[in-house]
Automatic annotation (TrEMBL):
Protein name stated in the entry: PZP protein
Gene that specifies this protein: Pzp
Comp. bias intervals (Basic and acidic residues): 62-80
Pfam families, sorted: TED_complement
Region named Disordered: 62-81
Length: 136
């Protein structure tokens, strides 16, 4: 069943999400999900605000971009050993990538460039079988 954005159930759900997005203490994972939801709903102002907030929290390292949980211990670089990120970090980073790429009209060149840095990190999280630790 497809519901339009004008359907009362969808309007009420979006209202609840907008109220949640206005909270200052939102967790980075919540912001990532909200950014994608507002992208799908065509709520450009909310989408841009969340993506701007997320960009300030991004971990930019080795020419890639990702997000991690607050308070996480910094990664230790060990020679010949690469730890893969926990599934929650793969998931939230993937949702931010989706928020950048599924916008209408098509993403700007600047967004595509930033999205490529996110994709680079996600690709680095693949296991030897081509899968991810994420359950999503």
């Amino acid at each position: 069943v497809s519901l339009s954005s004008q359907h009362s159930v969808v309007r009420n759900a979006l209202f609840c999400l907008e109220m949640a997005a206005d909270k200052e203490e939102s967790h980075v994972y919540t912001k990532a999900l909200l950014a994608y939801a507002f992208t799908l709903a065509g709520k450009e102002e909310k989408r841009k605000a969340l993506l701007g907030s997320l960009e300030k929290e991004a971990v930019k390292k080795d020419g890639s971009v990702h997000w991690q949980r607050p308070g996480k211990e910094p990664e230790v670089d060990l020679p010949y050993h690469r730890n893969r990120a926990p599934s929650a970090e793969v998931e939230m980073t993937a949702y931010v990538l989706l928020a950048h790429l599924t916008t209408r009209p098509a993403p700007s060149q600047e967004e595509l460039s930033f999205a490529s840095l996110i994709a680079k990190w996600i690709i680095g999280q693949q296991n030897p079988n081509g899968g991810f630790s994420s359950t999503q």
